[in-house]
Amino acid sequence: MTTAERPPRPSGAATPRSRGAAVPAASRLGRHQARYPARETSVRAARRAVAGVLRDWGLPGTAVTAEQVVSELVSNAVQHSGATTVGVSVTRISPARVRLVVTDTSPVRPHTGAPEEDDEHGRGLLLVGALAVCWGCDRVPGGKRVWAELCLGGEM
What does pLDDT average to over the chain? Predict the structure, then answer.
């Protein structure tokens, strides 16, 4: 069979290396995205979805940290954006990193708080900054994208 006669590869299928060997799932680049209603119950759903994707990709060690970061970012979007939905994605951007993204329709950029000792809120982005190798916010048409990158294996 010539290259032109081969059937198209299904999306998500292993990309061949030399001599037809499949790339192991744990080193493949990939992306998962979903939209959720902007409700508190969506925080849990997004957290579980991201953790499940990372486990499916063979990255269970990153799932716990990703759950915490996604929880904080989705909570912020639900509580502060006024949006009706939020978008969540996890992308394997390199063999050593994943990028978590939460989008909403608010143009207002998040800011790290300076909470007092007894304050019950205001520590979420401080936590994201401590867990992620880097994070930021980009304005996009129709709102913003808040992202955080995690190194695999706990390296920073």
Answer: 79
Q: How big is the chain by its Cα radius of gyration, in Å?
A: 18
Category of 154 on φ-ψ map: left (φ > 0), alpha (ψ -120 to 50) or beta: left
**For residue 142, what is the DSSP state?**
T
* b/e per residue 104-117 (b: at least 16 CB within 10 A): bbbeeebeeeeeee
| pLDDT, tens digit (0-9, with 9 covering 90-100), for 53-73 | 999 999 999 999 999 999 999
End-to-end Cα distance, the chain:
46
31-49: b (≥16 Cβ within 10 Å) or e:
ebeeebebeeebbeebbeb
Q: What predicted TM-score, i.e. pTM, was given to this entire model?
A: 0.77
Q: Rounded to whole angstroms, how far apart are CA atoms 74 and 36? A: 10
